[in-house]
Write a structure and sequence with these properties.
It is a single chain. By secondary structure, the chain is an alpha/beta fold. Strand 4, helix 4 and strand 5 form a beta-alpha-beta unit. The chain starts with a strand and ends with a helix. Bound molecules: flavin mononucleotide. The site of flavin mononucleotide has 14 residues, from helix 1 and strand 4.
Length: 184
């Protein structure tokens, strides 16, 4: 059966390096027969418990997309050693009960298989990936490949806005893709 992988990109930037990494990963996964879609979540509201009931339409939509996925691949930058606010806000919404106020109703993301990649500066998103792993464990996802893999954009990338991946980077991505597809 075709595996459905949902991409979540933790940067809203048009030329985001993480979006560029996701594009490469999409190629790799498609060659392996997976079906890829990207979660569009730029318009969701800020988490505010006053807004949880009735469930906003945009939140119902993202929850349905998450529910339909066999696996989720998160590509994230590191903002001040931590998870970017937009991604944290999205995960906060996905961590809330499907039926507002009913904590037995489950969440859209609990039990989902998730894997992590990140492109950032010199430390290759080491801190954000560790933080994200903890958060994903807490919201009861099944994290595949631990803290995932990080890639460092070099000075040229920051000047040209073009991420260059070398052979080793591609090999790392392919290995993660294989492990993830096997797990989902
Ligand atoms: C608010 C902010 C905080 C940042 N903090 C870090 C950081 O802690 N570590 C890091 O490696 N890069 C940091 N950066 C630089 C990002 O790695 C860089 O902007 C990267 O291109 C963002 O990912 P994107 O290209 O996918 O948008 C920060 C950027 C912003 C805007």
């Amino acid at each position: 059966m075709t595996k459905k992988v949902l991409f979540i990109i933790g940067s809203l930037r048009k030329n985001s390096f993480n979006r560029q990494l996701a594009a490469k990963c999409r190629e790799i996964l498609m060659q392996k027969g997976a079906e890829i879609s990207e979660l569009e979540y730029s318009g969701i509201p800020f988490m505010n418990q006053d807004s949880e009931k009735p469930v906003p339409e945009s939140i119902s939509r993202i929850r349905a997309e998450v529910a339909a996925a066999d696996g989720i691949w998160i590509f994230t930058p590191e903002y001040n050693f931590a998870v970017p606010g937009v991604l944290k806000n999205l995960l906060d919404w996905l961590s809330r009960p499907l039926v507002p106020g009913d904590f037995t109703s489950g969440t859209a993301i609990a039990g989902k298989k998730v894997t992590i990649s990140g492109v950032g500066g010199k430390n290759a998103t080491k801190n954000v990936r560790a933080d994200l792993k903890k958060l994903l464990d807490f919201i009861k996802t099944e994290v595949i490949c631990g803290e995932g893999n990080g890639f460092a954009a070099d000075g040229t990338a920051f000047q040209t806005d073009l991420l260059t991946l070398n052979e080793n980077d591609i090999a790392v991505l392919k290995k993660q893709a294989d492990e993830f597809l096997k797990a989902i």
